[in-house]
Amino acid sequence: MIDYKKEIAKIIGSIVKIDDKEIKKMVEKPANNEMGDFSFPCFKLAKELKKSPMIIAQEICEKMKLDAEVFENIEIVNGYINFFVNKERIIKEVGKKGYDIQISTFHSFGLRIIKENYERLGYEKNFTIIDSDDSLTVVKKILKEMGIDYARFNPKFIKNQISSCKNEMVTPEKYKNLVNDELSDITYKVYKKYQDTLLRNNSLDFDDLLIKPIELFNKYKEVLENYQELFKYVFIDEYQDTNEAQYILSKMISAKYKNICVVGDDAQSIYSWRGANFKNILNFEKDYQNAKVILLEQNYRSTKTILNAANSVIKNNINKKDKNLWTDNSLGEKIKYVRTNDEKDEASYVTREIRSLVNNGVSLDDIAVLYRTNAQSRTIEEGFLNSNIPYKIVGAFAFYSRKEIKDLLAYLKLIYNTKDDVS
Fold first, then answer.
1. Coil vs helix vs strand at 298
2. Nearest to residue 53, comparing CAs of 231, 235, 234, 230?
3. How far is 407 from 413, CA to CA, in rounded Å?
4. Vertex 181 angle, CA 178 and 184, to 5°
5. Residue of 296, 259, 307, 325 whose CA lies nearest to 56
6. What's the pLDDT score for residue 222?
7. How many CB atoms are located within 10 Å of the residue 304 CB?
8. Is the per-residue pLDDT at 46 higher than 60?
9. CB-based contacts of 193, cutoff 8 Å, min separation 6
10. DSSP assignment string, 222-269
11. Contacts of 420 (CB under 8 A, 6+ apart)
12. Of 20, 184, 388, 397, which is the most buried if we count CB atoms within 10 A?
């Protein structure tokens, strides 16, 4: 009979870099559940992983395949291996049992919970999910019914405010208490009507995929307990980019066993504009008092010059987790910083640099231009066209955002959900 507790401990140990002595302690400790007392919150504050996520995932899968009996008893994979790779890769590695593993984004996870409990939430089985454009359409329709001019109150701004409220777990009732001017009053009224419209249409928006499971768990404690038993181990990547709703959802799921491992770096939090709160990662040790913190400070990609510059910037942050990035790589070239007058000047500079590289033997296939948003590509493209530089835009226009595709999907949604007036 194989000692699966020891095998599981080894798997956990390989993930969080625990040595053999610690593994032995974990196995020998009095068990606090049927799987042994190696249940502890683990926090990896990572700037760079020593190995790529895909390689790590592959190694874990290989270990789980060592013995069929081990895998039969590893309930922890329902969440602990919830990271990095797509489900197809996991299934390929571990076989059909991989279908039982929850590998998803927060929103996909929320959708699963809603699908399994739609009646408790007041929806019918054939509910539909509306996209951002459809949400804007609903807001515009409500404003029109209220006789409000778009020129005075921007529909997109109101839609974004509603989305922010949802991500911060602010219901229409709570938002009513925050009303202090005409704009916030209009936003409150639209928000309330917006939610009523979605429910009447048997529809959910993208943000509902996070808040509806939380509403469900608050109302039905037995449902929460079922999911806590199903997902005894939780693994979350890019934890610094979680918003309030994601934070609450993960905390509720892991509240019973407190077996939660998160990976992230507060210095890499760049999504505050869409509700991400880097303080979630800074407060992890307060939320889980016995958390084990592992700093992965060695960088395997960048030069010393790049890391020194990064450290110089990061050290100015007031709220941060102290760390010092280092590398065995070479010093590297100096960083070149160029400030241009405007976007046209910038495009001109980029084209000149590319021309210079090409003249020095660099292939166009080895050159990439990165920009923050798709809207910034226009002036760059104009510069390329004027300079006869061939280029290819990658991922500029989503397939499902094309008008003809959206029209087709609208028909299909209406066939599926006859209450869907939005489509």
1. strand
2. 235
3. 10
4. 55
5. 296
6. 97
7. 16
8. no
9. 142, 145, 146
10. HHHHHHHHH--SEEESSGGG--HHHHHHHHHHHTTT--EEEEE-GGG-
11. 128, 201, 202, 203, 413, 414
12. 184
Kindly list the distances between the CA atom of residue 114 and the CA atoms of 110, 121, 211, 265, 267, in Å, as whole numbers in the listed order: 6, 8, 10, 30, 33
How far is CA 163 from each of CA 205, 243, 253, 274, 393, rounded to the nearest angstrom? 9, 12, 23, 9, 30
Q: What is the pLDDT of residues 69-124, one digit of tens each?
A: 333 333 333 333 333 345 566 666 667 666 667 778 899 899 999 999 999 999 99
Region of residue 386 (phi > 0: left; psi between -120 and 50: alpha; otherwise: beta) = alpha
Q: pLDDT of 241-253, one tens digit each? A: 999 999 999 999 9
Q: What is the pLDDT of residue 201?
A: 93
Residue 283 amino acid letter: N
Residue 339 has pLDDT above 90, yes or no: yes
The predicted-structure confidence for 355-391, as pLDDT tens digits, reads as follows 999 999 999 999 999 988 777 888 998 999 999 999 8
The two tokens of residue 161 are 């405010």
What Rg value do the Cα atoms of the chain yield, rounded?
A: 25
What is the CB neighbour count within 10 angstroms for residue 86?
A: 11
The residue written with tokens 């809207």 in the block is: 375
Please choose, from the candidates 240, 278, 266, 258, the residue with its C-alpha nearest in 3D space to the C-alpha of residue 79: 258
Distances (CA, A) of 279 to 240, 244, 265: 7, 10, 11
CA distance 72 to 139: 50
Is residue 4 left, alpha or beta, with left meaning phi > 0 and alpha meaning psi from -120 to 50?
alpha
